[in-house]
Design goal:
This protein is mainly alpha-helical. 73% of the residues lie in helices and 0% in strands. It contains eleven helices and no strands. The radius of gyration is 21 Å and the shape is globular. The N and C termini lie far apart (68 Å).
Length: 183
């Protein structure tokens, strides 16, 4: 027979510490814990709030997708087990996804309206996606750029307002210097 011995150290419960793995989450957690106290629920609160905002973000695209499709996307995000687990475990992809979606929306609105505010918001969210969100934020940006390049190269140039012409006009009218300085 084998004899198993347990020490007092083995009998103590193991607690996991909540650690923010990116500067954006660290800043949000610091502000939240300063205002509401230090607790595991308080530490998870910013990521849960961002995931709730992420669920509502398809409604920003209702002018392009239509109300029904945007509502279906929000519903699918609501019942998504991946988003639930990511928000409960303070995962960085929740922050990256929210920043990426906000950047795409701001770029789309800038293309429509040419208002400098949307260019600033897009620039700030892209920089935050790459620098502050998580280490894989840069890879998410590369995925967005890859999707844009695919869409750009697969469209025809027969239209008077071709996507290529629109892209060049947008790049020329983007307030590069001011938006990078503000960022």
């Amino acid at each position: 027979t084998e004899i198993y011995t347990l020490s007092l150290h083995d009998a103590l419960p193991i607690s996991t510490s909540l650690v923010a793995h990116n500067p954006l989450m660290f800043t949000a957690n610091t502000l939240t814990m300063t205002l509401l106290g230090s607790d595991t629920g308080t530490a998870r609160l910013p990521t849960v709030l961002i995931s709730l905002i992420l669920i509502a973000m398809p409604m920003l695209f209702r002018r392009w997708l239509g109300v029904t499709k945007a509502l279906i996307l929000s519903t699918l995000l609501t019942i998504s087990p991946a988003l639930l687990i990511a928000s409960r475990t303070m995962s960085g992809p929740v922050w990256s996804a929210a920043l990426a979606i906000l950047a795409v929306y701001a770029i789309g609105r800038f293309v429509e309206s040419r208002r400098w505010r949307y260019a600033f918001v897009a620039t700030i969210t892209i920089v935050m996606l790459v620098i502050m969100a998580e280490p894989a934020g840069f890879i998410m940006l590369l995925g967005l750029l890859g999707g844009f390049i695919f869409a750009w190269t697969t469209t025809s140039n027969m239209e008077e307002n071709s996507p290529r012409q629109l892209t060049f006009e947008t790049l020329r009218s983007w307030p590069w210097l001011r938006s990078l300085i503000i960022t």
